[in-house]
# Entry
Amino acid sequence: MKRMLTSCFGLGRLPVAPGTWGSLPVAIIFGLMCRFHLPDLSISIVMAALAIAGSVVCVKFAPAAIAATGKNDPGEVVADELAGQAVTFLAVMFLSLDTLSTGQIYITAVLGFLLFRLFDIAKPWPIHKLEKLPKGWGILADDLLAGVYAGIVLFFCHEIGLINYISVIFHPEDSSLNAPNAVVLGVVQGITEFLPISESGFVLAAKLPFLTG
# Structure
């Protein structure tokens, strides 16, 4: 059970890029909460709760995965990525999400996700040094700092107008199947490739108000 929790119910045991899979649920939750125009405070509370939950699970239960695998930072442990990604989206406390268009919300979620993965992989100073902390703390601390870095950059992307600039390029309000929706549609179609759903079915779903706003 301990290893199941640290792997976020099996996401960390996926064969390719387990850290990315561990971060993805938080980005999806953030995007959906923004899409349905929940108050910024509610989104912040949920992101803080996810960050705390992921941190507690990592610190308390990661030693079991370390002992079982013999590795100081087992790839299956992704509770730290979940916590770090949630920290990134705590930048919502400093943004006015209710003023953003649907396209800008998608871009914010995707950019926050990509920024966290970038900092988590590149590990600029002093993130790399934090990995030397003992047991679960070493696994967790570097991801939390990566989340802080990503959140700061995400905030400045909003402040300098980059989010708006990207949304203008993609013209999310001019097409029922715009670029952000196409990305989401492509991911969903790839994950559900084994199901008997035709491409035309996905395109029809993309035109529904729920997806297009």
About this structure: Residues 204-213 have pLDDT under 50 and may be disordered. The two ends are 40 Å apart (CA to CA). DSSP finds eleven helices and no strands in the chain. Residues 92 and 165 are 19 Å apart (CA to CA).
